[in-house]
Task: structure prediction
Amino acid sequence: MSTAPHSLQDLTAAAVHALTAERHGIADALQHVPPCPGLYAIYGDEQAWRDLELEPAPQAPLYVGKAKSSLAKRELGDHFAINVNKIPQTGSSTVRRSFAALLRHALDLHAVPRNLDKPGYYSNYGLAAGGDTRLSAWMQANLAIAVWPIPEGSVALLNSIEDAVIDHFRPPINIAGNRSKSARLSRERAEMTAEAAAWRPGAHTRTLA
Result:
């Protein structure tokens, strides 16, 4: 059943409120994250901010993003890789690539093409053997999430709401549309991209965790 239309301003305010109200640890997130469109915010504890070499601000989100179909699939499945039967795909998750870039020295992460059989699209790099396991473990241990399911009938405004919420929070892990984006993050991602482009067969044999 469709609902009454909401203004962009009202929806943005509702999203900001929800994304600062309640957070969930990854271990029990499936009980709270619905399989519907909306926005999500990723938070880190003090250790996470230190590991990322960012000025600690645990009450602020590290990243804000959208799920056009399912918050549970996009956030928990793609980014946090909670399904142990599914291989993590850092090459398909800009969130994982950003965390990997900032943690590459701390977790000994190395970039490779996301498809070793057909190298290319190096900015969408994957991780060499063992890297995804270490990254997923760090994320699940140090991060938490908050979600805002968008009201039915307002999904067409999701992109605009995401832009407004990013502008409100200015989270350091966001790049696109973020007026306060981290120059260090851009630099580290560029170096990971270059490492993936320099990959040759035999250097790293697998991207599997």
User: Anything to note?
Assistant: Residues 51 and 104 are 10 Å apart (CA to CA). Strands lie at 24-25, 38-44, 63-67, 111-112, 126-127, 143-149. Helices lie at 8-21, 46-51, 71-79, 94-103, 131-142, 158-169, 183-197. The first helix runs from residue 8 to 21.
